[in-house]
Specification:
- The structure is a homodimer of 389-residue chains.
- The two termini of chain A are 32 Å apart.
- Chain A has 13 helices and 13 strands.
- Chain A has 389 residues and is α/β, with parallel strands linked by helices.
- Helices cover 41% and strands 15% of the residues of chain A.
- In chain A, 53% of the residues are buried.
- Chain A folds into two domains: 124 residues, Aspartate Aminotransferase, domain 1 (Alpha-Beta Complex), CATH 3.90.1150.10; 244 residues, Type I PLP-dependent aspartate aminotransferase-like (Major domain) (Aspartate Aminotransferase, domain 2, 3-Layer(aba) Sandwich), CATH 3.40.640.10.
- In chain A, helix 5 runs parallel beside helix 6 and helix 12 crosses helix 13.
- In chain A, a hairpin with a 7-residue loop joins strand 10 and strand 11.
- In chain A, the strands form two sheets. In chain A, strands 2-9-8-7-6-3-4-5 form an eight-stranded mixed sheet, sandwiched between helices.
- The interface between A and B is large, with 64 and 65 residues.
């Protein structure tokens, strides 16, 4: 994700539905300031300045173990959890260590553009699995695995965003998760579960994670404080089998640099131990639920009848499919001129052509009236572009 | 570098000359606390919580541009500098982006063990170039390059620690730097200059950097605040040609995560802008100079006449060569039993056998009396081991 600088040709005062940034009002809150002050005055703060343990700040690991076991009825122990430099650091580390150059990594089609970029930087081969409104299509996965098996070229891992998927907002059905785990077992690939939106569901329940369903076997589950505390501290985590965590803890980057960021992690540990995280998450869920509902209402009201969109049950994003005659790139060009920005679908596919009639709306960042006005404007732009096609 | 947990079999109250950790008294100083308080109360602090610009926190980049130009008479601009997750993050990024799997990376023999580990994690092939007391031996480099050239298998980069080298403490002669640059130009490889000890020289001058001598061409220069502020914040930097910085800024990890750590970087930017860094560095130089002198005095006083050691002009380390009949591993085993720890030479070589009569002494961390007592004890252990060989 990027600094929200305006792209060239974008008008002043543009409404940005572009980035998956947290709601600005939820950062640097009084509770966060209080946690920072407490951290500074705690005896543990000195340790936050020295090289940390490679596994990460122990107080934060302990908090996460309790949280995961309490909320997901897991049986993880300290040895199953490590702190990472955001979900980014976790994905980068996991790819570096477990996906050798030229190995095949399966991804949802579409998947998060920047994750594809991280994976590509490690010289792996990407293969996309189509999705429907229940997430990754298992029969498609099965077909592709059979094909790769015949070619003796099986994948090393599946990278998936099961909850409130980026970019689509879709949640992978729990029954499919079980089927996918069976395929992983049969064909011998790891599942890397990017679950950074886990806590940001709009309903009281979220499907069981791959990690929970597999009882931790061959699943690497990635979490993050970027969405529930603040992105700028770069703190995430990885949950996995002890053997996998040990390999990660002993990688070159962590041996050289110590823990991912002892300073940031100590501040977040203080925030959590003071009991601030749970009510903050409740606030976030309410905010994003309201925004998502407002977005869905605006879409129903303004969009032409041949435009389709997803109905997220959590997270930051929803996904639009334009009529076959309307190019998203053309819609974006005109929208930018009129003061609206969003992400093209193209960047989320291995082959950009697959996304040329799609666009991603981030409802997390823009103020509510801007979000509604932006979607009204978007509907007008789509009609304008259609008339000129 | 690691949490200084005692290894198994180490006595209570062990003197640790093992890790290159900063002097404990230099962390979380009143000036650092003041900078943290100022940062918290500045209008820029909010931005430290959001995704940052991929290139890094602008105020810190600006400070570094001024510092580099002032101190090294460079002509770098904002476009030549980026913030990284410590020197570790810089080396990891540079290797990921510029050293494809199976390419050859040249390193000094010995080189920093954890850097070798980072490089190995990226599936490159390492080739060591022998050193003498002036650093990397250019005729050896030339010989190896000629050999690789014949095999049509030239290296992609040279990773070097030119100043106060880890593990040896040796500084590469400036005349050799010029010769190495000529070879880099002739054979077309990049120079990655790990210059994290640059500011910690004991004399008033330090040789010109590769970056300065090459006027920035094909040199990537890595710096760090881990030695001059605190390791726990994980903030370093990379200086290079605009084209290289652009490629780094646009890598997957930074696109996905934003700047390496906006929160840490903002705190350090505040420390620097308040004028605290320069006097802090002067304090550090005086502390480490005194420790190094004490170590050299103790070595002269206690060591057997056939033990040799380096005479660092800066940094954290010195390097011992034991007599050919004495194994460093045996010395370490006995020393651990008697309450002393240090790093074996073996880990710093591609082939560990090349370092079996070497050991690294970190004079940066242990208190002065412990340092002196530790070296006296080391001399006794060497004699003990020799008698039992």
């Amino acid at each position: 994700m990027f600094q929200p600088d305006l792209p060239q040709g974008t008008a002043e005062g543009t409404i940005s539905l572009l980035f998956g940034h947290p709601d600005p009002s939820t950062l640097l809150t009084p509770a966060m300031r209080d946690a920072l002050n407490s951290a500074m005055n705690s005896p543990q703060f000195y340790g936050a300045f020295q090289y940390g343990p490679e596994q990460g700040t122990r107080a934060l690991i302990k908090y996460l173990v309790d949280k995961l076991n309490r909320e997901q009825q897991l049986g993880v122990q300290t040895e199953n959890v490590m702190i990472t430099a955001g979900s980014t650091g976790a994905l980068d580390m996991v790819t570096r260590l477990f996906a050798p150059p030229n190995s095949i990594v399966l991804v949802e089609a579409p998947s998060y553009a920047d994750s594809l970029h991280v994976l590509r930087d490690h010289h792996v081969r990407l293969r996309g699995i189509p999705m429907d409104d229940q997430g990754l299509i298992v029969t498609e996965l099965e077909r592709i695995l059979a094909e790769l098996n015949v070619a003796n070229d099986l994948p090393i891992m599946l990278y998936t965003i099961p909850n409130y998927h980026n970019p689509t907002g879709i949640t992978l059905a729990e029954s499919r998760r079980v089927e996918i785990l069976n395929l992983a077992d049969r064909y011998g690939f790891l599942i890397v579960e990017d679950d950074v939106y886990h806590d940001l569901g709009f309903e009281s329940t979220v499907p069981s994670s791959f990690y929970a369903l597999a009882d931790g076997k061959s699943v690497l589950s990635i979490g993050s404080f970027s969405k529930t505390f603040a992105p700028g501290l770069r703190v995430g985590w990885l949950v996995a089998d002890k053997n996998i965590i040990d390999q990660c803890v002993n990688c070159g980057v962590l041996q050289m640099g110590g823990g991912s960021n002892p300073f940031s992690a100590q501040v977040i540990a203080e925030f959590c131990s003071k009991g601030y995280l749970e009510p903050h998450i409740e606030t976030l869920r309410a905010i994003y639920k309201q925004r998502c509902e407002a977005a869905l209402t605006a879409l129903s009201r303004y969009m032409p009848s041949d435009v389709r969109w997803t109905h997220p049950r959590g997270g930051f994003f929803l996904w639009l499919t334009l009529p076959p005659t309307v190019l998203a790139s053309e819609v974006k060009r005109v929208a930018n001129e009129r003061g609206l920005n969003f992400a093209l679908g193209e960047g989320f596919f291995i082959d950009p052509a697959d996304g040329r009639h799609n666009l991603r709306i981030a409802f997390s960042f823009a103020a509510l009236p801007d979000l509604e006005r932006g979607l009204e404007l978007l509907a007008q732009v789509i009609e304008t572009v259609r008339r000129h096609t």
